[in-house]
Amino acid sequence: MLNMALFISGSGSNLQAIIDNIHETNVPAEIRFILSDNKNAKGIERGKKHKIDTHVIEKTMSMDYNRDKIIKLLDEYKIDLIVLAGFLSILDEKIIKLYGKKIINIHPSLIPKYCGRGFYGEKVHKAVIENKEKTTGATVHFVDEGIDTGPIIRQKVCNVYEDDTVETVKNRVLKIEHEILVDVIKEFCEGE
Ligand code: GRF
Questions:
Q1: Closest residue (by CA) to atom 7 of ligand 1?
Q2: Which residue among 15, 31, 93, 180 is least packed, with the fewest CB closer than 10 Å?
């Protein structure tokens, strides 16, 4: 059984895709806990509906305190894979060193385009439209000490149309995010 921890900050649609396609199926992987850096994140409610333990880190607490709290949780729940599913905080490098190639992130662009500091959520899609890109997509990658710089695991491309808005591009990319994130987790289950 692959024990997963999902880190979120917002609506949790990626979390929901993993609940529906992995957690609630006979795929040998379970979400052991959800961690949010935003106590109002809608994703917390999504987890509670499925009786998944949820924990919150307060940004008002020190980085060291939150780091130690996260490490303690990861250890207590015997986590094999950390999934950053729309998690906006930067993970402490001690966690990255401890978990190495067991942390994956979903990013809503074709890395190395439109990633790094300041490129998250709708800002990504706004830049894609402003630059009149013909395609965009999503990327699942390993997390290293940088921002969106770890080795790429999976990408999928979609078209961008002249009459697209940030909303239409965001929704098209989100569908891809859900698809490739679930696929990559299933591959982790198969030990790939
Ligand atoms: C997604 O666009 C994801 O790529 C980015 O943050 C957003 C999270 O969406 N990292 P959700 O909270 O999973 O709905």
A1: 86
A2: 93
